[in-house]
């Protein structure tokens, strides 16, 4: 997007609440906690068809009987009874600029985000119109038969697609938070790419506005029909500030025969958020699914993008970076499930821990009976910045075919004094030297991101470094 | 005022003293060679000058451009115009030579050069050093051969144009052509405002770059200095005679050693 377009955006006046435009205003006072009543209220407000209401209620029952997680990071401080499960965006985000923490304001400034956009990202300003850019691209996509809208809209406008595919990749009983999301989901994107269509411009990559569509319990569904290609970009590197302490999204991707989907996301949650996300793709015959995942911020993140390789010759690739600053725990990872023969998978995970931050890798490679001739390669590198920094690696490998080639490499490194001295001997300051080494460490992943995301990610990590390393 | 003045320098690690009273003066416009057997302390001296945090100065003085070096961080020393070509430069994965040099150049000069003019200049230097253009796109020293590492250091020398260049074995691992190219590049940089301290084991590089002075370090001390002919003599006779001749030199006292 060029300067002119940004200007045009800033000037445009039509109000358009992204993702929530078609909802009627209901005069209900939100209540904390989860109940059948709350779920019914969500379905009422959204004016949803009966099948979706039933789906939500069923999911609620599943959630209520699912036991609490017995593994992974400590999420016990998270009180699920003390959360609003449905809030209009105005409620979810800050009400006024004064409510936005100083730290976040400072980050906005240092990222050079224009003030109007800063307020929008912080949720203070609900209206930040995207029609100027979005409208033009939308026409282009529509000509190709691409569907790209909010999942809320899609429930009404494309019920046949939704009924066929919704919750087929991540079922409500998949895990406790998938059940929770299924009961109360709101927002998220729905994407359908017709057979043979290649979408040239990454969907959503053009605008930071997407931070807003990423609600508290968003639900994204992407269907790439046979032989199609799309690169979908979600999130933004500017910190997402929310007044609620839980983000629990579900992302489902279906990659049909010979199609390829790349899903890139960089998220930077404010440091009091529990970020518990389920994202999974099914790759059919000769299809390729790629997750590029960047996790910053949050108090705890649990996120394990998965590719289920269901058709012969399918490929799955997961690239992930996680950055744990002080007081943060990033439990990131990846899953490769080989269901069909001749499927290949690759996981590259890079984690950085600063101060007492904890960033780890939790992964699963599974080769099921009948899936002969499979290959999987896992590489996880951890970079520890300080003495008290921590990393954990939990690589689960479960192979049922003797001819599978599964390799796992794990490395833990520290920024070496030798490297720093070398860089400093060239006139580079210590902090700059540290961020150079770190940006080099994550380069195998940043090079896969759209340029503006890569640049911002590097800047952001540099800022985090300066704050924690000093 | 000399450009570099080292006065009775004692330095080493926390546990051991490696340099036992080194004194050396270098004027602008001069080229000095520092020779000596393995493990005699040549690289330790170079590191002490550049500010390696692993080398602790125990006593003595190092002054460069009139400033006390001990008070400065390595990056501040570099910004004053001091450059060390490393004997063993480390790998920095994921950072290309081009982007690293650009960052360094920006820090050294404080100037923001345009991407285009920077790449034009870099291309020119690569050409001078007969390096392939894609050399600068490689990750800093990752998987480099010994010779390639030296050529990366020489490339940086040519771009940064420091006032004082300390070259720690710039010739080791170089083939005959590469040695000539490196030497030519150093000669092209010689000027009345610039000085070089070249650490080497071999006469060969000094055939190209005629030194004004040659110093011999043994066991952490400069035991002998002379003109260019001293290097030739060492090449022919080795170090044994020097060790014998100067064995009578007073060993550092206990007191000094524990400083
Ligand atoms: N960090 C260190 N810890 C312990 N010993 C060290 C350290 N650095 C250097 N030394 C020792 O100090 C001595 C001098 O080392 P130095 O690298 O300065 O030698 P040099 O003259 O450069 O040798 P060469 O010609 O082989 O490069 C050696 O015995 C070396 O092992
Ligand atoms: Mg040496």
Radius of gyration of chain A over all CA atoms, rounded: 22 Å
Largest sheet descriptor of chain B: 6 strands, mixed
Instruction: Domain count of chain A, please report it.
Output: 1
Q: Please indicate the percent range of residues of chain B in DSSP E strands (runs of 2 or more).
A: 25-35%
Can you give the mean pLDDT of chain B?
Answer: 93
Q: Class of chain B in CATH? A: Alpha Beta
Account of the 3D structure:
The complex is a heterodimer of chains A (470) and B (259). Chain A is built from 14 helices and 18 strands. With 470 residues, chain A is an alpha/beta fold. Chain A has one domain (21-417). In chain A, strands 1, 2, 3, 5, 6, 8, 10, 11, 13, 15 and 17 form an eleven-stranded mixed sheet that branches. In chain A, strands 4-7-9-12-14-16-18 form a seven-stranded parallel sheet. The longest helix of chain A has 19 residues, at 451-469. Chain A is globular. Chain B is of the alpha/beta class. Chain B has a single domain, classed as Rossmann fold (3-Layer(aba) Sandwich). In chain B, 37% of the residues lie in helices and 26% in strands. Chain B has a six-stranded mixed sheet with strand order 6-9-10-3-11-12, with helices on both faces. In chain B, strands 2-1-4-5 form a four-stranded antiparallel sheet, covered by helices on one side. In chain B, helix 3 (97-109) packs parallel to helix 5 and helix 5 (146-160) runs parallel beside helix 6. The radius of gyration of chain B is 18 Å and the shape is globular. Mean pLDDT of chain B is 93; it is low at 250-259. The interface between A and B is medium-sized, with 24 and 30 residues. The complex binds adenosine-5'-triphosphate and magnesium ion. Residues 42-43, 87, 168 of chain B line the site of magnesium ion. Magnesium ion is lined by residues 42-43, 87, 168 of chain B.
């Amino acid at each position: 997007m060029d300067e002119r377009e940004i200007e045009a955006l800033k000037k445009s006046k039509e109000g358009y609440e992204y993702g929530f435009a078609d909802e009627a205003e209901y005069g209900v006072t939100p209540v904390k906690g989860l109940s059948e009543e709350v779920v019914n209220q969500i379905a009422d407000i959204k004016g949803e068809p009966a099948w979706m209401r039933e789906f939500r209620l069923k999911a609620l029952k599943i959630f209520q009987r699912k036991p609490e997680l017995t593994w992974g990071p400590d999420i016990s401080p998270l009180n699920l009874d003390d959360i609003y499960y449905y809030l209009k965006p105005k409620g979810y985000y800050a009400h006024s600029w004064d409510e936005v923490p100083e730290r976040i304001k400072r980050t906005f400034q240092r990222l050079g985000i224009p003030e109007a956009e800063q307020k929008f990202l912080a949720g203070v300003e609900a209206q930040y119109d995207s029609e100027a850019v979005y409208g033009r691209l939308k026409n282009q996509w529509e000509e190709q038969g691409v569907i790209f809208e909010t999942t809320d809209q899609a429930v009404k406008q494309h019920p046949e697609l939704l009924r066929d595919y919704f919750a087929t990749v991540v079922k409500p009983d998949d895990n406790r938070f998938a059940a929770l999301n299924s009961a109360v989901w709101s927002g998220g994107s729905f994407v359908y790419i017709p057979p043979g269509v290649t979408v040239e411009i990454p969907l959503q990559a053009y605008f930071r506005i997407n931070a807003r569509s990423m609600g508290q319990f968003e639900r994204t569904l992407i269907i790439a029909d046979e032989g199609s290609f799309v690169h979908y970009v979600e999130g933004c590197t500017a910190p997402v500030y929310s007044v609620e302490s839980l983000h629990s999204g579900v992302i489902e991707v279906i990659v049909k025969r010979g199609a390829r989907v790349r899903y890139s996301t960089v998220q930077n949650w404010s440091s009091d958020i529990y970020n518990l996300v389920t994202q999974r793709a099914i790759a059919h015959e000769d299809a390729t699914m790629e997750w590029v995942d960047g996790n910053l911020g949050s108090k705890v993140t649990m996120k394990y993008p998965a590719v289920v390789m269901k058709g012969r010759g399918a490929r799955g690739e997961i690239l992930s970076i996680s950055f744990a600053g002080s007081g943060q725990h990033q439990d990131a990872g990846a899953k490769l499930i080989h269901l069909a023969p001749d499927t290949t998978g690759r996981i590259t995970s890079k984690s950085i821990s600063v101060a007492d931050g904890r960033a780890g890798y939790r992964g699963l490679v599974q080769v099921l009976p009948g899936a002969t001739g499979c290959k999987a390669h896992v590489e996880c590198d951890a970079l520890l910045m300080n003495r008290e920094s921590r990393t954990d690696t939990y690589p689960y490998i479960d192979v049922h075919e003797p001819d599978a080639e599964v390799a796992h490499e794990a490395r833990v490194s520290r920024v070496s004094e030798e490297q720093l001295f070398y860089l400093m001997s060239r006139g580079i300051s210590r902090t700059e030297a540290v961020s150079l080494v770190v940006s080099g460490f994550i380069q195998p992943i940043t090079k896969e991101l759209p340029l503006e995301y890569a640049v911002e990610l590097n800047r952001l990590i540099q800022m985090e470094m300066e704050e924690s390393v000093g | 005022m000399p450009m570099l003045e080292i006065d009775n320098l004692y330095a080493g690690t926390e546990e051991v003293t490696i340099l036992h009273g080194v004194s050396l003066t270098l004027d602008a416009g001069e080229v000095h060679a520092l020779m000596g057997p393995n493990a005699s302390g040549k690289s330790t001296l170079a590191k002490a000058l550049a500010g390696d945090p692993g080398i602790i100065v125990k006593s003595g003085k190092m002054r460069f451009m009139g400033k006390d070096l001990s008070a400065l961080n390595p990056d501040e020393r570099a910004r004053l115009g001091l450059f060390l070509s490393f004997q063993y430069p480390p790998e920095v994965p994921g950072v290309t030579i081009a982007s690293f040099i650009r960052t360094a150049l920006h820090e050294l000069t404080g100037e923001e050069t345009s991407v285009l003019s920077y790449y034009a200049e870099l291309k020119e230097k690569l050409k001078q050093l007969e390096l392939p253009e894609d050399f600068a796109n490689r990750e800093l020293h990752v998987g480099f051969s010994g010779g390639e590492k030296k050529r990366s250091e020489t490339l940086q020398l040519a771009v940064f144009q420091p006032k004082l260049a300390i070259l720690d074995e710039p010739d080791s691992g170089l083939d005959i052509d590469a040695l000539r190219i490196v030497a030519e590049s150093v000669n092209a940089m010689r000027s009345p405002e610039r000085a070089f301290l070249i650490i080497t084991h071999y006469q060969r590089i000094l055939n190209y770059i005629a030194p004004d002075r040659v110093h011999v370090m043994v066991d952490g001390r400069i035991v002998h200095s002379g003109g260019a002919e001293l290097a030739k003599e060492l090449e022919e006779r080795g170090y044994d005679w020097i060790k014998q001749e100067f064995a009578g030199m007073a060993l550092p006292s206990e007191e000094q050693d524990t400083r």
